[in-house]
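It would be a great kindness if you could assist me with a short task in structural biology. A protein sequence and the structure tokens that stand for its backbone fold form the material at issue. I should value your view on which stretches of the chain appear to form regular backbone elements. The record follows directly beneath this note.
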Amino acid sequence: MSSIPEIRKTAEHKMQQSLEALKASLAKIRTGRANPQILDTVHVDYYGSMLPLSQVANLSLLDSRTIGVSPWEKGLGAKIEKAIRESDLGLNPQSQGDLIRVPIPPMTEERRRELTKVVKHEGENAKVAIRNLRRDANEHVKKLLKDKLVSEDDERRAQDDVQKLTDRMIVEVDKLVAAKDQDIMAV
């Protein structure tokens, strides 16, 4: 049976993972600036295997609105270009010799508003995950109390501790969402 510090440590670790997952999903949401991470979802046919773009080419920023894609093999250029064009990202790559330029079109006001809704939704999902972890931790503590392994005071203290941890994580989620919103709405 685990102890209160172990329960808290596990809860904190899992909540931290939820935050990291939120950061990763927010990084994929496109802002007005170019970011090679938006191409993470693009897969290229490489000798019959579908590989992520980052495993068959070097991705770089050419300027604030252009991503450069340099295929590692000569024959892959056309396949990479096709994969980017057919992705649901709405991008139109242009080949220049060995380099594929991927200009990031400026976003419309309507598209920005849509993206802020997506960001808020991602934030809500992260909050739900964190609250579920709080519930799980509290249930473990209650079970320790029921099995008479901890006192009621210890149980109350542990629940307060888990609540403070949860509040801290929720504030962190709100900060990430607000920062991403600001990033999207910046013209």
Remarks:
- The chain has a mean pLDDT of 87.
- Helices lie at 4-28, 77-86, 109-146, 152-185.
